[in-house]
Specification:
Length: about 80
C-alpha cells in the first residue's frame, strides 16, 4: 500500500465549486483498479480546508492516477480555487 494525504486550503468563494469538482474526481478515481480507497474529508472547524486520503495498491498506481483524464480535468478545474 502507498498512502497519500493531500491537505488543501480553498478560497472561500470557491468552496462549493471545489467540492463538486472533487466529488466527481473521487467518483471516477475509486473505479481505478490501483486505488484501494479514496476519501474526501472536509475539516470540521474550517470549511475552507479539506484532506484527500488516497490509498494506492502500489506507488506505480499513484503515478497512473495522475495520467487519467478525470485527474487532469480536476487538476485544471481546481487550480485557481486553492488559497495555498
Amino acid at each position: 500500500m502507498f498512502i497519500v494525504h493531500v491537505f488543501i486550503h480553498v478560497k472561500p468563494e470557491s468552496v462549493e465549486a471545489f467540492k463538486a469538482a472533487t466529488l466527481e474526481n473521487v467518483k471516477n478515481s475509486i473505479q481505478e483498479p490501483g486505488i484501494a480507497r479514496f476519501d474526501f474529508v472536509e475539516q470540521a472547524d474550517d470549511p475552507n480546508r479539506f484532506i484527500l486520503v488516497e490509498v494506492y495498491r502500489t506507488t506505480e498506481d499513484a503515478a497512473k492516477h495522475k495520467e487519467t483524464a478525470h485527474y487532469a480535468i480536476w487538476r485544471d478545474t481546481v487550480a485557481d480555487m486553492m488559497a495555498e
